[in-house]
Amino acid sequence: MQPKELLALAEEFGNPLYVYDAATIENQYNRLTSAFSKVEKLRVNYAMKALSNISILKLLKNLGSGLDTVSIQEVQLGLHAGFSPEKIIFTPNGVSFEEIEEVAKLGVQINIDNLSILEHFGAKHPTVPVCIRINPHVMAGGNANISVGHIDSKFGISVHQLPHILRIVENTKMHINGIHMHTGSDILDIEVFLYAAEILFDAAKNFKDLDFLDFGSGFKVPYKKDDIETNIEELGKKLSKRFLAFEKEYGRELTLAFEPGKFLVSQAGYFLAKVNVVKQTTSTVFAGIDSGFNHLIRPMLYGSQHTIENISNPKGKERFYTVVGYICETDTFANNRRISEIKEGDILSFKNAGAYCFSMASNYNSRFKPAEVLWKDGKGHLISKRETFEDLIKNQILVEV
């Protein structure tokens, strides 16, 4: 999107503001499906924890996507957005058995990553199809907080515990229809991903009635100029060839599934905030904005870098700024970053704000959550309102003491 378009949206809808470009989401979805066009049965399940606004869900549904969910509330949102139960997979971690049963009643594909839950569910519901999440013990992610396939991860059943899985399946006579893995976000080396895929292929040989193999996702997107990203075209070429060969070896047609979240929506997102103050100290020039990590926590939580542009002065002389928020503790978006000269009242745009940004926003410091806008066909559509004071107190109960 162009600075003038973003500025117009900030003027129309106020700040801070999240903006999502529908065309970018569509392009990323088509790029992924094109990379695996040789696979007859391809399934893309959007990992909705990245961004769960129902307008975004409907957009992806219309493109042909399914959903990857991690809570019963996400399942309910997916159904509300029009997804059929068979297009939704539920991959929880550490949730109650009752929640898994409740989701199963809705007809959603269950994915289990715990031996005790697997045995309990199989004994009680042997006819309900179940997918099993395997931990391949492969470190394919970037930051340790988003790498989930390593040996110390809480996610998945260790591939070394496969004999235990097989014993449970045999004893309960449960129906295993899928095998799943997820190594983590920000995959840098597709060869590591392909190595993990071989572990999944080997595990799959132990189950005779599979319908699908789910390879998770974690594809890296660029966060700055010349940044490394997952070569999705090369991965598509190599994994498709190996998958088709495995299908012949397995003896039946299978669905190849992925669960991209960040890959589909990250680059579509922009976060717009107004500069409240420009503050010169003895060694630093701070640009303080009308937002904080209550709206965009990733830089503080993961050390993630979001390209920041001064869209009010996009061609101005660059100076060094430390961009900070208004939260009453350390609240830094960028340290000593080159940005076009900033003055109070300017609008800054944070790129790659489509994934794990609004979805992780909070009301810390009793601040309102921002509005969200979908940019489609040259027009901004409000898809969630800015919160108000009434939203802050609507669930609170005043007790006279």
- Label the CATH architecture of the largest domain: Alpha-Beta Barrel
Ranges with pLDDT <50 over ≥5 residues? 141-150
- Principal-axis shape: globular
Oligomer state equals: single chain
CATH class of the largest domain: Alpha Beta
In whole angstroms, the N-to-C terminal distance is 53 Å
Order of helices and strands: HEHEHEHEHEHEEHEHEHEHEEHEEEEEEH
Overview of this protein structure:
The protein has helices at residues 3-13, 22-35, 54-63, 72-80, 97-105, 115-124, 162-172, 190-204, 232-250, 262-265, 298-302, 389-393, and strands at 17-21, 42-47, 66-69, 88-90, 109-112, 130-135, 157-158, 176-180, 212-214, 255-258, 269-280, 285-289, 308-310, 318-324, 332-340, 347-350, 371-376, 379-384. With 401 residues, the protein is α/β, with parallel strands linked by helices. It folds into two domains: 22-265, Alanine racemase (TIM Barrel); 266-382, Lyase, Ornithine Decarboxylase, Chain A, domain 1, CATH 2.40.37.10. The strands form two sheets. Strands 1, 11, 12, 13, 14, 15, 16, 17 and 18 form a nine-stranded mixed sheet that branches. The protein has an eight-stranded parallel barrel with strand order 2-3-4-5-6-8-9-10, surrounded by five helices. Strand 4 (88-90), helix 5 and strand 5 form a beta-alpha-beta unit. Helix 8 packs parallel to helix 9. The longest helix has 19 residues, at 232-250. The protein starts with a helix and ends in an 8-residue tail after the last helix.
Chart the SSEs and their pairings.
Elements: H1 3-13, E1 17-21, H2 22-35, E2 42-47, H3 54-63, E3 66-69, H4 72-80, E4 88-90, H5 97-105, E5 109-112, H6 115-124, E6 130-135, E7 157-158, H7 162-172, E8 176-180, H8 190-204, E9 212-214, H9 232-250, E10 255-258, H10 262-265, E11 269-280, E12 285-289, H11 298-302, E13 308-310, E14 318-324, E15 332-340, E16 347-350, E17 371-376, E18 379-384, H12 389-393
EC number: 4.1.1.20
Organism: Flavobacterium aquatile LMG 4008 = ATCC 11947
Function: Specifically catalyzes the decarboxylation of meso-diaminopimelate (meso-DAP) to L-lysine.
